Amino acid sequence: MTAEQPYYPRPVPPAMTSPAPTNGMSVAALVLGILGIAPLAVIFGHLAARDIRNNPPQSGYGMAIAGLVLGYVVLAVWAMVFLFFLVVMIGASTTTALGA
C-alpha cells in the first residue's frame, strides 16, 4: 500500500494591473517650467493638479506641483529683472535731466 501525496493547489499569480495613467498636463507643466515658459507652466500646473485631484486614478501630481513651483520661480525672476531695469531707466533719466 502506497501513501498518496496530499493535493496542494498551485498558487495563483497576482493579477496584472496597469499603472495609473500620467496626466499629460502635468508633464507639460514640468517641461514648460524647466524651459522657463512660466505663464504656461503655471496654467498647466494648476489645471493638472485640479484634474488629478478630481480623478484619483491619474498620477503626476508631483510633476504638476514641480511645474507650478518652477513657473512661479521663473515669474519671480522675471519680475525682479523687470524692476531692476525699471529702476535703472528711471535713475538714468533723472541723472541725465539733472546733469543738463
Give a quick rundown of the structure.
This protein is an all-alpha fold and 100 residues long. The protein has helices at residues 24-35, 38-54, 61-99.
- Largest beta-sheet characterization: none
Mean pLDDT: 90
Helix and strand string, N-terminal first? HHH
Helical run tally: 3
Instruction: Choose one word for the global shape.
Output: rod-shaped
Category from helices, strands and their pairing? mainly alpha
Low-confidence stretches: none
Q: How helix-rich are the residues, as a percent range?
A: 55-70%
Span between N and C termini? Answer: 122 Å
SS elements, strand count: 0
Please state the CA-atom Rg, rounded to the nearest Å.
Answer: 29 Å
How much of the sequence lies in strands comes to under 5%
Transmembrane segments: 27-49, 61-90
Domain DUF4190: 25-80
Pfam family, one: DUF4190
Keywords: Membrane, Transmembrane, Transmembrane helix
Features:
single chain, 100 residues, mainly alpha, 3 helices, transmembrane, transmembrane helix, membrane
Topology:
Elements: H1 24-35, H2 38-54, H3 61-99
Helix pairs in contact: 1-2, 1-3, 2-3
Could you explain the architecture of this structure?
By secondary structure, the protein is mainly α. It is built from 3 helices and no strands. It has helices at 24-35, 38-54, 61-99. It is rod-shaped and about 110 Å long. Residues 25-80 form the DUF4190 domain.
